[in-house]
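User: Hi! I'm working on a homework problem where we have to compare a predicted structure to a textbook description. Could you give me the structure for the chain below?
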Amino acid sequence: MTKKLIDALNIKSIKNKGEARDLAIAWQYWASEQSLSYGELAYYQDIFYTLAKKYNLIREFKENGIL
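Assistant: Happy to help. Predicted structure tokens:
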């Protein structure tokens, strides 16, 4: 995973809805090239659920396969 993406996964560094979307897009691209376990997917889903809840993005993230 790129350093930028790892740093962004610290959800305290995400300051607005746009940054949350950008992180989700970058993660989705990265994840598509990985072989992730169910445990790893659950870990990332928890991060994105927290962000989605905070920025009212639950529907959008579900529609785009993030959640």
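For your comparison, note the following. The radius of gyration is 11 Å. The chain has a mean pLDDT of 86. Good luck with the assignment!
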